[in-house]
Structure formats: C-alpha cells, structure tokens
C-alpha cells in the first residue's frame, strides 16, 4: 500500500466509517435477536409438545437449507407483496436474525439434550418451575456447551451482512465498492475491508472467550 492509497483512504474515511458502523449495527442486532429467538426454538425442539416440535423442526430445516441471499431477497421483495413494507436495513436484520435463530436453536437443542435428564427431575422435585429450572440449572450448563459453536455462528452473521449490499444497505462492503469505483484501487480497499471484518470477528471471538472464562466451572 503506497502513499497514494493512504491519501485515498483518508479522503474516503467518512463513508467507510459509516459503512463500518452499519455493518457492526446489523451484525449486533441480528446476533442478539437471532440468539434470543434461537433459545426459544431450542426449547421448543427439546421440550415442546409433538405438534410444536414438528412445526419448529420444519422451520429450522427450511431456514437452514435456504441460502442467506434468498432470505435477504425474500425479506425485502416478497414481504412487500403481502403488505409488509420493510426498509433495506430492517429487512436485512430480519433475514439474518431468522437465519441465526435456526442455527442457535439447533445449538441450544444439542446442549440441552447433553444435560442428564436427572437434573431436570431433581429440579422438579425441589419445587422449581420450568423457567427457574432453565435459569438456574439448564441454562448455565447449556451455555458452556453451546458457546464455542455460537461464536462461529456469530462470525458467520458478520460475513453474511455483506450480502445486504444487494438490497442497497450502506454497509462496509457497499461503501468499499463505491470507493473502488472512484479510485480503481480494488486490491488495496478490499484488503482493508477484509482487515476490518477480521477485527470485528476477532472481537466476537475474544468476547466468547471472556464469557467462557466467566461461566467455567472451577476445578
């Protein structure tokens, strides 16, 4: 990267910073909303009545088997045909959160099934309700079990956020492409954008390590 790139990077700093902020916002919101929905999906898959399990199983299998790009386009274009008009930002978050929830739901299901059933029965025996059992007995153990895979899912959401440029969301990739169209420095700016995405995912990985240390069982 020569001084010409540094000069162009300084000129383009405002749109790139705005794009980075949009990418972080989209990733954070989709991860948080998708994780919350995924917990309920996992609970339904594990403890729901049979008809509920069938419905939720169909949901997770369908969403996990659908490309993220298709979900993004459907959220923006298909929903508008039935009277649900979402802006590009809202449609993008909806698509990514739904995709995230299906993966988190499977992680939660696997983590809950890993816990011996005797612990649930013991919690019932001492009078705990199911919300209390999940909060104090099942949840902490499932968190430790699912956390490494959740970090990978969160990182995938950051990568998937680049697809929102196709519906006009001004995230980092779209802003980078706009700068490249003006400067013709494709290699340099794509490399710089890749570095920024790496920083975001590295931050997610460090956060996961922090939570893992805080929730670890003392030896």
From TrEMBL:
Recite the lineage of the species.
Answer: Bacteria, Pseudomonadati, Pseudomonadota, Alphaproteobacteria, Hyphomicrobiales
Q: Which family does it belong to?
A: Belongs to the binding-protein-dependent transport system permease family. HisMQ subfamily.
Q: Tell me the keywords, alphabetical order.
A: Amino-acid transport, Cell membrane, Membrane, Plasmid, Transmembrane, Transmembrane helix, Transport
Q: Looking at the record's lineage, which domain of life comes first?
A: Bacteria
Q: How does it sit in the membrane?
A: Multi-pass membrane protein
The protein, known as? Putatvie amino-acid ABC transporter, permease protein
Q: Which GO terms describe its molecular function?
A: transmembrane transporter activity
Q: Name one GO cellular component term.
A: ATP-binding cassette (ABC) transporter complex
Which species is this UniProt entry from?
Sinorhizobium fredii (strain HH103)
* Listed GO biological process terms: amino acid transport
User: What Gene3D superfamilies is this protein classified in?
Assistant: MetI-like
- Which CDD domains does the UniProt record give? TM_PBP2
């Amino acid at each position: 990267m020569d001084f010409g790139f540094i000069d162009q990077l300084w000129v383009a700093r405002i749109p790139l910073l705005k794009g980075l902020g949009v990418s972080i916002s989209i990733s954070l919101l989709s991860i948080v909303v998708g994780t919350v929905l995924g917990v309920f999906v996992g609970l339904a898959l594990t403890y729901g009545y049979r008809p509920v399990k069938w419905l939720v199983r169909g949901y997770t299998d369908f969403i996990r088997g659908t490309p993220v790009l298709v979900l993004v386009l459907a959220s923006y274009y298909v929903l508008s045909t039935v009277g649900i008009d979402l802006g590009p930002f809202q449609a993008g978050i909806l698509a990514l959160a739904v995709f995230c929830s299906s993966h988190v739901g499977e992680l939660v299901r696997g983590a809950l099934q890993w816990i011996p059933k005797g612990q649930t029965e013991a919690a019932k025996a001492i009078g705990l309700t199911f919300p209390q059992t999940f909060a104090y007995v099942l949840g902490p153990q499932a968190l430790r079990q699912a956390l490494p895979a959740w970090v990978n899912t969160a990182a995938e959401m950051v990568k998937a956020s680049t697809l929102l440029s196709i519906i006009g969301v001004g995230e980092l990739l779209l802003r980078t492409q706009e700068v490249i169209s003006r400067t013709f420095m494709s290699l340099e700016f794509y490399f710089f954008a890749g570095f920024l995405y790496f920083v975001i995912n590295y931050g997610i990985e460090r956060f996961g390590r922090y939570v893992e240390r805080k929730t670890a069982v003392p030896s």
